[in-house]
Design brief:
Number of domains: 1
Radius of gyration: 18 Å
Shape: globular
Largest sheet: 8 strands, parallel
Distance between the termini: 15 Å
Domain Amidohydrolase-related: 3-276
GO molecular function: hydrolase activity
Structural class: alpha/beta
Helix content: 25-40%
Protein name: Amidohydrolase
CATH superfamily: Metal-dependent hydrolases
CATH architecture: Alpha-Beta Barrel
Family: Belongs to the metallo-dependent hydrolases superfamily.
CATH class: Alpha Beta
Pfam families: Amidohydro_2
CATH topology: TIM Barrel
Number of helices: 9
Strand content: 5-15%
Strand order of the largest sheet: 1-2-3-4-5-6-7-8
Length: 285
């Protein structure tokens, strides 16, 4: 079984996805049912977690509608206005859909590197744990210190760190500042990490296994195989890699792990953390 814990879907329009700039023409297309089915067949993916790509309830609704009609999608991480005064009632309206598994805000794009500690935003985040919802943390490495404080304020929150917190990946200089804060945030037991979105942080035009491996080694050492999960960040990964190339690369990286550890990384951890219902049985742990 292979669960891709992080991918996106969209019907492209320039006004709805302004973050897709002129250098990202490969993303200026629809990525919907046909494209998802093709990727699943090529890479052997048996289930996906669809994650928001724009901060809109309309997109959250669209992802949930898609998930309820497409068995490839096992869960949705949507967007909600967590700082709104009526967020509790809004969340409760959506809890009727069991495919809503989590919430994400694009913290990486906030101009204040300490936005994640905003009081009103945190009031909304505080409602997620009691509702059984995961919070996905999308940040750049420079926002790790504030995110550590954030997690310490929410010890009961089931949280997931996206894209190993986006280090600056220079093949000639390892990101030591990222590593220090990354290892510190990994000490929080309520946090799981996605090994996803890594290739798009490579500053060179090309990348290789040798470029990626040092960051895998740190992620594995910091979180261990029981708190890491596979993700592709497709179709954003197309800026640097096809889905299958990335999947094959990660398979090579995890070949050092035991069969049970690989099963945890590629499926069981995502199923456990997000509470996914899949059509295939998982091993007992």
């Amino acid at each position: 079984m292979l669960i891709d814990s992080h991918h996106h879907l969209w019907r492209y329009s320039e006004d709805q996805y302004p973050w897709i700039n002129d250098d990202m023409s490969v993303l200026r297309h629809d990525f919907w049912a046909d494209e998802l089915t093709q990727v699943a067949a090529e890479s052997g993916v048996t289930g996906f977690v669809s994650v928001q790509a724009r901060q809109s309830l309309a997109e959250t609704n669209s992802l949930l509608e898609f998930a309820n009609s497409n068995p490839l999608v096992n869960g949705v991480v949507g967007w909600f206005p967590l700082a709104d005064a009526d967020i509790a009632a809004l969340l409760d309206q959506y809890l009727a859909d069991p495919l809503l598994k989590g919430v994400r805000h694009v913290v990486q794009d906030e101009p204040d590197d300490r936005f994640i500690l905003d009081a009103e935003f945190n009031r909304g985040v505080g409602l997620l744990a009691e509702r059984g919802l995961v919070y996905d943390i999308l940040i750049f490495a420079k926002q790790l210190p504030a995110s550590i404080e954030f997690l310490d304020a929410h010890p009961d929150l089931n949280a997931v760190l996206d894209h190993i917190a986006k280090p600056t990946i220079d093949p000639f200089q390892f990101d030591d500042r990222w590593e220090q804060s990354f290892r510190e945030i990994a000490k929080r037991p309520n946090l799981t990490c996605k090994f996803s979105g890594v290739v798009t942080e490579v500053r060179d035009e090309q990348w290789s296994m040798e470029t990626i491996r040092p960051y895998w080694d740190v992620a594995l050492d910091a979180f261990g195989p029981s708190r890491l999960m596979f993700g592709s960040d497709w179709p954003v990964c197309l800026l640097k890699s096809g889905h299958k190339r990335w999947t094959d690369t990660v398979h090579e990286l995890v070949s050092e792990l035991s069969e049970h550890e690989q099963a945890d990384f590629f499926s069981n951890n995502a199923i456990r953390v997000y509470g996914l219902q899949t059509s295939e049985p998982t091993r007992e742990v």
